[in-house]
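Sanity check

After download, print the first record. It should look like this:
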Amino acid sequence: MATRSLSRSAGNGPSMWLWLGIALVVVLLDQFAKQLIVGDFRIGESRTVTSFFDVVRLENTGMAWSLLANAGGWQRWFFIVLALAATGFMAWLLRRNGSQKLFSFAIAMVMGGAVGNVLDRMTRGAVVDFISLHWHDAYTFPAFNLADSAITLGAICLVLDELLRVRKG
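Expected structure tokens:
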């Protein structure tokens, strides 16, 4: 990626606080949804909503697609440290680029998702996943949660932001 402007957003757009507020909303919605699932489902329990969507309670000690889930426990602390370091870096990016709306929205979504999942790792030792999408019995996408959805939306927005920036340049 090319270098982006590192000017602060003093008066020329939304401030860092707007983006941190969006990240906080993501964290709160994610944690609220997870509390509902934990309070109403046993691990492994599933309820069909539609022919392609189930609500399920799973816990993932690994990362995406359960990578490193059976690594012996060290991965919990590694993912916590990694997420906290990434959150600090994203806060720095928001401070420096708060006026860049799409970029900052993307960072806020990724940050909110990362914090939502790290809270699970810190309090439960695993991330609670509860959204299960499938195509009949032929294919089931790995279960995920609202934090994962926010991270994915943020990543899509980052790619879009870069494509739009390159197109302008």
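If your output differs, re-run the checksum step. Summary of this record's structure: The radius of gyration is 18 Å.
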